[in-house]
Every structure is written in structure tokens, then in C-alpha cells.
Automatic annotation (TrEMBL):
Subcellular compartments: Cytoplasm
Function noted in UniProt: Cell wall formation. Adds enolpyruvyl to UDP-N-acetylglucosamine.
Species of provenance: Paenibacillus sabuli
Name of the gene: murA
Keyword Cell wall biogenesis/degradation: yes
Protein name: UDP-N-acetylglucosamine 1-carboxyvinyltransferase
GO biological process, one term: cell division
Signal peptide residue numbers: none
Region (Disordered): 447-478
Any one GO molecular-function label of the UniProt entry: UDP-N-acetylglucosamine 1-carboxyvinyltransferase activity
Enolpyruvate transferase domain sequence ranges: 7-407
Keyword terms of this UniProt record: Cell cycle, Cell division, Cell shape, Cell wall biogenesis/degradation, Cytoplasm, Peptidoglycan synthesis, Pyruvate, Transferase
Amino acid sequence: MSKFIIRGGRRLSGTVRVSGAKNAVLPILAASLLAEEGRSVIHEVPLLDDVVTIREVLISLGASMEFEQERMVVDASDLRSHEAPYELVRKMRASFLVMGPLLARAGCARISLPGGCAIGTRPIDQHLKGFEAMGAQINLGQGYIEAKIDGRLKGAKIYLDVASVGATENIIMAAALADGTTILENAAKEPEIVDLANYINAMGGKVRGAGTGVIRIEGVERMRGTEHTVIPDRIEAGTYIVAAAITGGHVYVEGAIADHLAPVISKLQEMGVDIAEDENGVQVRAASPLRAVDVKTLPYPGFPTDMQAQLMALLLTSEGTSVVTETVFENRFMHVEEFKKLRAHIKVEDRCAIVNGGAGLVGAKVCATDLRAGAALICAALKAEGISEVTGVQHIDRGYVNLTEKLAALGADISRVDETAEREAQEAAAEVLEEVAAQAEQLVPVAAAHAQPSEEKSGYTREKEQIPVLNKVQPTWA
Ligand SMILES: CC(=O)N[C@H]1[C@@H](OP(=O)(O)OP(=O)(O)OC[C@H]2O[C@@H](n3ccc(=O)[nH]c3=O)[C@H](O)[C@@H]2O)O[C@H](CO)[C@@H](O)[C@@H]1O
Ligand SMILES: C=C(OP(=O)(O)O)C(=O)O
């Protein structure tokens, strides 16, 4: 088990480079299953735990995956399985994104039910509704969803009850190889969906209207591998913008696409943060004091739920009372109780959190319950007085590449400690101390016998001799 140790109070300054988007690369890698011939070369692939998981899923299906320095080469020409097992899907819900492409390519798919997670129940009814509308038969058996179709999926008109990101992606991928045209209404409009559509089109697909509420997918018979560069991660970028603002810093977030961040940038500007964009990124200069603002999470282009926790951290340092309303997930305030350990004043009422800013944050031991809760706790800890320890690092590793290194390069006092290694080091050091003490014990009578003049006269005592020796053997973690 690892943890982050952060001493708050340092202003961040300098440049931080944004990595490729987690939420774009996951569906893109799933979509590479659509290519019956050729290899796909994907650039700007972030080295994240979720990417490792989707890679394992694709390998288990028969794809070959080479990964080197943010470049993934996928060859899915020979698939040998249509099943994504529980062990992989339970690690990451987004594994369910292989259902659409598998069904389209192989005519069948068997995927472990993804289930809920800390932030909500997260049903998949809209994905299944789309596949059924295209003619697939869906069965639920022993924790798995099984889908199959005789021949090809058929193009259909599908209206999503909720503008689900995952359902939109899964249906686009299924429809890409279907017979006929699919019209997807009330589709999600996130930039990651546009990136997926661009990738599919480069593979020979025909997807039009991605980024709007109506997407038309004309099915094609075959697709081939292609080359694609993943868009920068808008949530990672937004997190660094908040980290800069909360510390009163001055940071250039290189690679951030301001358009993708419009709802975040506009909220922060309303708070008084100075943000300027250019073609390569955004410049953040914090002002003080910051103003309280109200915010409501919504599907894109509304304020992203994946930035709600980080914005709440910033609101804790503003003057006045803010109301944060979460409309996308029903249980996404888990960070509130952890913020309270840092002496935050927040009250949750149903889907709203009432945040009283202005109270100074004080470092404490806190736990990340999910990915963005973890990012928000780190932002708050960067501001808090004294030392904070953030556990639950496995959640944060799902979505942030080299977080410690990136923040440290901006001047943050942050380190990552592996608790197992730390405990082993402590045990080893304790053993050394015991051994030294035992040896010293044996040497004392010998030293006393040779002592000239006597202890009493010289002022020599056993304690005085031993203490400095033992102190020298301080372990590095002390
Ligand atoms: C890998 C990835 O891209 N993850 C993102 C994706 O998750 P994900 O694709 O899972 O999120 P959805 O857009 O599907 O979920 C939005 C809402 O719709 C509901 N819903 C969804 C599907 C369905 O069939 N039925 C249904 O009711 C969900 O419970 C949730 O309340 O979009 C979320 C919303 O922006 C982000 O927080 C996640 O970071
Ligand atoms: C909720 C998130 O991801 P996922 O959908 O993969 O759980 C996130 O990225 O904040």
C-alpha cells in the first residue's frame, strides 16, 4: 500500500504537460477490435493502471498489443475469444466498452457485469437498449451479459434516455460495422466521443455528427488499422489548473485545450482566477481572495462531474458560501467527509453540498475513495497547513500519470511512500538497532575495565557513550 505525503503551503509555478486522455484512450483501444486487417498505432497513450487493464482485456480476446513510450500498437486481426472475464472487468468498468465492437465483429460477446462503484450504481441499460435495437439478443447469466446476433447487426434509430458517454461510445462502435445506418439521438457530446469518431473514421468507418446530440453511423463491411493521436486529458488539465489556483501559483498547463475546458475555465474565472489560453495550452495565475460560486454538474458542455471534487477543494479556500449540485452520479460526495478531516466546513443535503469557504485547511490523514476524490484531496493538501497523508493511491493511479513528479516539478512538497517498503525498512532498521545495542552491551564491561581514570572522575557514563552511537544508526525514513 502506498500513500502520498504532502506538506502544504508551497506556491506552484512552472509548466506541466498534460498526458493523453484516459477517457478517450479506453474507448479508442476498444474500437481497435473493429479492424479486421492491419495494425493501429495510437500515440499519446497515458501509462495508467486503466490502460494496463484494457490492454489485458484486449490481449485476453486475442489482440496483440505493444506498448512503448506512450505509443501502443494494436493488432486485432485474429481474435480468439469473445469473453471479458470478471477479474478484469471488476478492476475497471470501462472494460464493458468491448461489448459493442466484439458484437459487431464476432457476432457475440460475453462480458462480466460491470456493477456499481463508489460514485453510483451506474447501470448499463442504455448500452443494452442500443444493442437490442440493432437486433442483438441479450441474456443475463451468472454475472455475465451475453449478447449475440445471427449475421450482422442492423442499423436502427435509437434514442438514449440519458446522454450516457459509455452507451454512446458502445453503440457507435457496434453500429460502425452494422448493416445500414444508425441514428443515435440524445447522444453524449463529450470531446472523447469526437476523438473516438475520428479514430473510427480513420479506420474506414462513417460516423457523422459526433459532438452533437444526433450521431449518424453508416455501417461499413470492413475496417483496417490506422494511426491516431489521443486528445489531451481535460480532467487532468483541469486538476492542475485547480492545483495552481489553490496554491496561489502561476502555472502553464501545456497541451490543455481551452475549448474542452470551457465550463471549468469559466467557473474559475467567475471565482477570480486569471486564466489565459493560447494555441498550446492555458496559463493560470491565481488571484486572492477567491469568490464563492455555485456550480451544477451536467453532461458536456456542462460542468464535468469529474471536476466537481477538485472544484470543491478550491471553493474551500474562497470567501463565502457556495452550493455544489451533483446531477450526474447519485453518490459523488464521498470526498466531503475526508475534506472535513482537513477542517473544511461542508454540509451535504441530498444532491447539494453547501461549502463554507474561508476556514484555513489543516493537514491530516485522509483516504481517496475514488479517482477524483483523490485528486481533490491532493489539491486541498497542497493548500493545507502542515503535513497531510493521502491513502487510496490505487484510485489515483487510474487517472494521473506521474502525479508526484509533475507536482514536485512545479514546486510542491510531495512524495510517494510505499507503506510496505516503509514498514520493511523500519523493521530492518529496528533489527540493526537491536544488534548494535546488544554489541554495545557486551563492550561496556570491557571498556569499563580499561577505563583510566575511573568513570566517576572522567564523567564517562555508559549512557553518554551509547546514545550518540545509536543515534547515528537512524533509519532514512526517520
Ligand atoms: C471511462 C469514462 O469515459 N468514464 C466517464 C464516463 O463514464 P460513463 O460512461 O460510465 O458515464 P455515463 O455517461 O454512462 O453515466 C452518466 C449517468 O448515466 C447513467 N446511466 C449510464 C448508462 C446507462 O446505461 N444507464 C444510465 O442510467 C449513469 O448511472 C450516470 O448517472 O462518463 C462519466 C460522466 O461524464 C464520467 O464521470 C466518467 O469519467
Ligand atoms: C469516474 C471516472 O472514471 P470511470 O468511469 O472509469 O470510473 C473518472 O474518470 O473520474
